[in-house]
Amino acid sequence: MRRIRTSITESRNRCSIEFVYIVRMAERAAWGAILACACWVGPGIADESLVLSGRVVSVEGEPMDGVRISLTDEAAEVAYSRSETDGTYRIACVRPEPGHSLRVRAVSPERTFDPAFHELGALIVATQEMNFVELATEFLSGSVRRSDGTPVPRCVVRVYDEATEEIVTMAETDEGGLFTVRLSPKSYRVEAEAGTEGLRFSPVHASLTPGRGYDPVNLVAEAGARIAGRVVFADGSPRPEGGGVVLIRSSDLSVVGNLTLVSDDGSYAFGGLEPGAYTLRYLSGNDSAKTNIVLTKDVGFLNVHLHIGRSSP
Known about the structure:
- The chain contains one helix and 25 strands.
- It is mostly beta strands.
- Strand 22 and strand 23 form a beta hairpin.
């Protein structure tokens, strides 16, 4: 009986040892798969693992969860993670080769962080802590209206950083012509698209007023007539793709060399025009079109299609 019990005990011990070994091997395989998914070894990336960690906090110093931590090389994103409920994040990556670098950014809609990014070189230590702090932001609101004061709905508004000339954010006006964006304390240039009506807007500059935020930005279309239409083939069928430019010239040469790009749907538009005779010319590679029109004082808007291969006298 002792021999039987001893044999059973030894068998149980061997089974336990084998089970622990299998579990540990499975854990190693799982971590290897996670690291392989989190990292992409591409040009300029050395096959040596790094672990980046840190914390993302709000303006008030509170932890921020769900913030995307993006790791990019010169070409694209190579790994990412998201901050937890306590604001911490952890991301596995690979060490860049000498002469190359990686950048770590905190990305969240309508929010900016300090620093804008952390840069990683080849000499970075294996474990690196990189924290991000949300910058204070303010709301900038405004309206887009025609020269007669009526609102322009569904108008695209673009906000540019005046220092870098880069687009910071975009918005679309509601049915009342109103829009709102969230910005960090800087100086900006706000522009509205002409749209299919051919409206022309002068850009508006916006700067933060200490203690009061941003003053409302109101974009009002320039007075004058508008011309808009589409570029089509001679039989009237729509052009399958955009491209090219439409130039406008007045007979008295008060308007010379003004041009607009043709959008993907073949549409174009001009605005702020005085009464008079104008020539419209479409150019794109071997395609061209030309027509002459007359704007009178009682005409506020004229819809003109330009037919490729056809020219009016």
